[in-house]
Amino acid sequence: MRRRLKAAAPRRPSSQRSEEFPENNLRVVFTEKQIRKRVGELAKEISRDYQGRALHVIGILENSFMFMADLIRALKVPVVCHFMKVETRDRTEGGVAVRELLYTPKVEVVGKDVLLVDGILQSGVVQEYLHRYLLGQGPASLRTAALVEKTNERKVDLSTDYSAFKTSAKFIVGYGLGYQDKYRNLAYLASLA
């Protein structure tokens, strides 16, 4: 016997703001409309650059997931999706502080056209590390894309091939970018005060 489950009606938001997500501390930097427009423009540019070729798109988790999803849906070339998660771990070795970058899973890109996608490029340390790692595998081409570039925080000489926005706002959340894993669901990009 089959049983049908009824979906619960969505709860109406309370008039009180959650202390956990203080939206009054947010200032919109880029609207949903601006994001949609720029992602579409980037997709056209990338599709033109890779016309007639399959593109292996690697998203750096977690910040890239919304940007990458919208970007690949708008691409007009064949796409193969991959994801990498990078974690930093600090430890001491012989009295010296060492920072390790750990990434998973390994992606095979030998002879392939690759686009490395991130939600935000700040210091550039993680992206540069992955860029060098992927180049070492011998891809046919390797380019980078970021939703947001924060050039004032760059610690390495790395720039993106495709970037939707540049800003010097202190801390950006929304559209996949989070603060303590909060605010990722916002349809816009905001500065967290």
Defining key terms:
193 residues; alpha/beta; 20% helix; Rossmann fold; single chain; three-stranded antiparallel sheet; six-stranded mixed sheet; 34% strand; 9 strands
What's the arrangement of secondary structure elements?
Blueprint: E1 26-30, H1 32-49, E2 55-61, H2 65-74, E3 79-93, E4 96-104, E5 113-121, H3 125-135, E6 141-149, E7 162-166, E8 172-173, E9 189-192
Parallel strand pairs: 2-3, 2-5, 5-6, 6-7
Antiparallel strand pairs: 1-9, 3-4, 8-9
Structure description:
The protein has 193 residues and is α/β, with parallel strands linked by helices. The protein has a domain at 35-167: Rossmann fold, CATH 3.40.50.2020. Helix content is 20%, strand content 34%. The chain contains three helices and nine strands. The protein has helices at residues 32-49, 65-74, 125-135; strands spanning 26-30, 55-61, 79-93, 96-104, 113-121, 141-149, 162-166, 172-173, 189-192. A six-stranded mixed β-sheet has the order 4-3-2-5-6-7. The chain has a three-stranded antiparallel β-sheet with strand order 1-9-8, with helices on one face. Helix 1 packs across helix 2. It starts with 25 loop residues before the first strand and ends with a strand. Mean pLDDT is 85; it is low at 8-19.
